Amino acid sequence: MDPQQRVLLELAYQAMDSSGYLGSHRRESGDPVGCFIGASFAEYLDNTSVHPPTAYTSTGTIRVFLCGKISYYFGWSGPSEVLDTACSSSLVAINRACKAIQTGECTMALAGGVNIMTGITNFLDLAKAGFLSPTRQCKPFDGAADGYCRSEGGGLILLKLLDQALAAGDHILGVIPSIATNLGGLSSSITIPHSSAQKKLYQTVLRQAGMKSDEVSYVEAHGTGTQARDPLEIASIREVFGGQSRIDLLNVGSLKGNIGHAETAAGVASLLKILAMINNGKIPPQASHKYLNPKIPALGADEMSIASKVNRWEAPLLAAYVISYGAGESNAAMICCEGPPPKTEVFKQMASAEAGSTYPIIISAASQESLYANADNLGRAAAL
């Protein structure tokens, strides 16, 4: 079985457990929940192809089972789809999930992407094509940018309509007021982004959200750290979001400076970064960035900045723009902002209902003495 399937199954269980869904889940109910996964490479076939045929190789390597096994495990009846747009796959999958919920195809959706490297062939091919950095880490917007560093990862988020989440008293990590995709088909090369298409996408997402550009105070860029892509991306961001008329400073960053380029999982990784920023109220410094790429004009004149230290994220509304580009020119972008303050009466009701409840606690140990010691420690902690 492709390790990507196992990783996604683990992440799916963690996500659904974190959301509280498993507390009332019954597989036989066939809940109308959708599952949308962004994925591209099927490198594990390099390993299975050197072994004799088995009855499980197809279900262990065909990409449809990346989502199919998740939906089957939970007994879901909503759409279950794998989407491949190369590096923008996971954000395109989230877009598809949002649209499926809005049109009533499903009531909730689990969406994201995965990228686990289990073969060397794509490393060699990407290096021959000049994509990869010979000096390792991605250096977004930096003068020393010389290509990207491949990385592994996976991420999933659970989506539902805001009013339903509020009614259920869910812990809302963030809100997506708008998300969209388009294609940069008129670019100079199939692997080079088209600035005009990027700008049109940014404006479409803003229009759908009913927001102005200066209401966005952070842009999580694709930012792979390449000499060709980074200046084009900053130029399109500057034209739509920058300008001396901005009220708040626009910070720009890229997670790839921290963890490298997770390719088909890059978009959801960037979204998870934004959710962490929203819930901590802070803007982290841009990793692997020492000085601005000379091909990028100074940012200060247009009220833009790349953070060099941890700053408090202060704005009337914490709203970020997340961008993801695919090697085949498929662009995806979204706005993610803080959710409404929780209704205190709902949480008071939940707290009062739990006040008189008792719960079993399981304590384990390697010996009877350790068991008693663990129980004693737990008792002292509970009394604090």
UniProtKB/TrEMBL annotation:
Keyword entries, A-Z: Phosphopantetheine, Phosphoprotein, Transferase
Family matches, as PANTHER family: FATTY ACID SYNTHASE (PTHR43775), NON-REDUCING POLYKETIDE SYNTHASE AUSA-RELATED (PTHR43775:SF21)
Protein name per Swiss-Prot or TrEMBL: Ketosynthase family 3 (KS3) domain-containing protein
Phylogenetic placement of the source organism: Eukaryota, Fungi, Dikarya, Ascomycota, Pezizomycotina
Example of a GO biological process term: fatty acid biosynthetic process
Transmembrane recorded as keyword: no
Pfam short name (any one): ketoacyl-synt
Signal peptide: none
Domain Ketosynthase family 3 (KS3): 1-338
Keyword Cell wall biogenesis/degradation: no
Native source organism of the sequence: Alectoria fallacina
GO molecular function terms noted in the UniProt entry: 3-oxoacyl-[acyl-carrier-protein] synthase activity; fatty acid synthase activity
Family: Belongs to the thiolase-like superfamily. Beta-ketoacyl-ACP synthases family.
